Structure formats: structure tokens, C-alpha cells
Amino acid sequence: MSFLKKWTSSAPTLNGKRSPAAALPAGPECGLPTLPNELIPSILTRLDSRSLYRVAQVSRRFNEISTRDWLARHGITPSQLSSGQVVIRSDLPGEAFSALRSALFLRVRPLTSLGCIMPFVVDSKIFFQLDSLLSWFSPPVVRLTAVDLDFGADMIPHATATKSIARALTKLLCTLANDCPTTVFVLEDGLFTCRPDALRRWNPATGHYEGGWVESTTTYAKIRMHDGSRQRVPTIRSLQTVNTTYPLDPTASSPFNKWKLVIIDAASLTDLQLSIKLASHEWAAILDALALPVLVCVGLWAEAISTATSTRFFNRHPTVRTIKYLSPSADPLPSGCAPLRLPRLENLNSLAPYLISILSSSAPDASCAEDDLSDPDSAARLPRLWHIELRPHVRLRDALLLASTHAPLAALTLWSLAPAHLAAHPWPVFAAVWRLTVNETRVMPVLAEGLPAVLARAFPALRRIEVNYSWAGNTDFSTRVMEREQRAFVQQVRAANPDVHTFMFDGKEQPIV
């Protein structure tokens, strides 16, 4: 090994500079560069990583052969390099990062995708080496179109206990965001957009993005978005995997062709709340690029999200079982947009316009209130939708009419049901609904006057009634008065429909006398 040390002391380094020795030493080691290529691998296999790196500095031929051998020790094959997609699976990720950086100096196809599955290590040096590797892919160098990192365990608890880990993770996330004008982060149960320097003061120990001293971790914090507004967004409470996609929209003329998407812990993201304020075209670009493999529940409050955008997003996530769609807007689907099709959707909580838009084949327009809006194909598109929850709206009657035609419907929940809703129009028949829930009913005696008749006529299969009412503003009513009104309601309903056998009031069952 001494002859290698002596021989490489005068070899040019990667930056083209030479060591003080001006000439190669005399001796048998001078013949090493002329060895046939088939003998070189046998020599390289006997070298450790440090010696292998020094041999790689001798010449381009040794650089290529030794670097490829170095990469092979960590599972990085020439085919991965030539395809531009590298996956690192190594017990020594630090050495693998160094080997990959050496490979970047070879004249191979530019690297476009990097995947890293690391063993669970609590070593800030590893994260700084990874950050150094990712920093190499910054303008004017071609950016990585995809980066997939798996740290093997949640790193936030270790960042809370160790300052060096916290600094390394902060620097790593900043590196992921700094090479793009806008980065979209999807995490926990929400998302946010940020400028390149927005995460430089993120503190893993507190969850805050803007710095400052707090006593404990927080669930939500404010961050300055890409448009300058400060909005309340979820904090990063776990960090095991990171998946990035660049660009958000590959279309050359798109304003989002330099945006980046970063998803944290995608394998555990089951809930998603869409409530921040963004423009309609920004929501469309983000949701069209977003894919969450285990998404179950979606809450939507943002008015700027169009029905077409949300429908495209839902149709790409067949795992969704619950939708809470409380945006007051529900524009009609364009002619080229496929209707909503969710084979596992079980619960839908929405306003009347959205229910009309997804269950009908017509546009949700007030002028067609008297038309036949029913869509016979809704049961095929939404075969498991058995529970619908409706909020008060001027088009409640049209929504109820459509809901009654949905064959799988078995449970119905109505909010703020007033006497006017009971007497205004004849109710459609819900042939298969066996459970009815009425929320926020404040005046029990008035409701009892019209509801029993509606139940007998419109709910022939009803077996269970749940009433959740608020007595706010009625503090003069004693518990005894409340119980008396409940018993009277039960008697009236039983007289109109004897098959109803379960009555629940604010979560407590009222016995049948």
C-alpha cells in the first residue's frame, strides 16, 4: 500500500491541481497505469474506501473504474447512473453520498432522480453530507426532478433532544426549498406554500417557522406564504420520509414550471384539510400534481377550488372514504370532465349545491329546480355512499330530492332543521334510510309538531332517530322540562311510526315508555 501512497502523492486532484511532488517516482509502481483493465478490478477490491478515493485521482481511467467500484459497494449500478435514476440502499450512507458525488464528475447522463433509504442513524454528519450532495443540484446545474428520502425513523424527537440534528434537518429542508422560487409543502393534515428563505428559522423542537421561544410543541403556526400573506398552517410534527417533485407543472408556458412539491411522510397522510387562501389556478396546479397513496378523509373549505379541480383530485384517490365539502361554491363540471367516481366513499358532508353537482347529470343552476336532476348512474359511481350530511341552504329541497334517489343511502343527517323546512314542500321518500340525525335543533316543541308526520310519510324504513340540540338562549328550561319535551316527542313519533325503536338525545338514549 505504501507504493500507492507514494504514487498518488503527485497525482492531480479533482480540481486539477497537483501536489508539491513534480514527477512520478521511479520504481515498479510507475507501471501501474499501464496494467490491462481486467487486472485493475482485482487490485481495487483489496483497497479500503480511503485508498480507493486516492486511486481515483490518478487518471480518468482509474477515476471511472474505481468510482464505479466504489458505487457498486453501496448498490449503485452503472445502469442506474446511465438512466439518471439512482437509489441508495446502504448501511453507510455517508460513504455512498461521497461516492455519488465522485460519480457526478464522470461524463454520464445527468442525474435526474435520487432515492435514499437509510438505516436509522442519529448522526448529524450524515444529514450534512446529504445536504451537501443535494446542494450540488442547484442552478445552473440541472435540478433533480425527484428526490425520495427515507430516514428509517421519525427524526423530530431526536432533533428535539440534539441541537446538531435540529440544525442539520433545518438546513436540509432549506436546501430542498431554496433552489425554487416557490415550494409547496404537504404535511400532517394540510399544506402551505413558501418562499425560498421561509424555512431558514424553522425549529424542529417547537414546530415554529418564524423562530422565537415557546414552551412546547405546537400543532399549528403562522408562516409567510409565497404571495406574502401570513396564514395558519400545520407544523412539521414528524419527519421520516421526504418526497419531492419538480417541476409542479412541466408545461413550458405554465407559471408553475419552476415550483416544487415536497411531501413529508406521504405513507401516513390519511387526512387532508384544504383551507388556506390561494388563487383558483394555483389550487388547480397543486391538486393536479398531488398524489397521496393512503388518503382517507378530505375536508375542503377553500372557495377558490373549482368543482372540476376537486373532482379530478378525488378521482385519482380511490381510497377516500369521507369528504367534508363546505365550500359554498359548486360550479358545474365542464363537458370534458369525468364525473365523481369513488368506489370507497361512505360519508359525505356538504352544502346542497355540491351534492346536486355530484349526484345529478345537470349543472347546479337554480333555473332547473323543477327539472328531473336524478342521475341513475350515481349508485354505480358511488356504490358505498350510505351516509349523507346536509347543511342548511336555499336549495335544500333539490338536494333532498336527489339524495332520495341514491339507492345505497341508509343514513341522513340534517343541520339546523327549522319548521319552515317541514311545511314548505312535500318531502321525497327515503325508502332505505333507517337512521335520521337532526343537529342544532333549538325549539323542540315546535319541531315536534311537524317532524312526526314527515317521518311517517318520507321515512318508511326508519328505525333510529338522533337529535342533537342546543339549549343556548333557553336557560330558563330546567332539566325536568327538557325530559318532558323529549318524552312527548317520542310518543308523537311512535304514534306516527311504531317501527322506530331507538331515540337518542345529545348522545343519551331516551327509553320508550
UniProtKB/TrEMBL annotation:
F-box domain residues: 29-73
InterPro entries in alphabetical order: F-box-like_dom_sf, F-box_dom
Signal peptide span: none
Region (Disordered): 1-22
One Pfam family of this chain: F-box-like
Stated name of the protein: F-box domain-containing protein
The species this protein was found in: Mycena rosella (Pink bonnet)
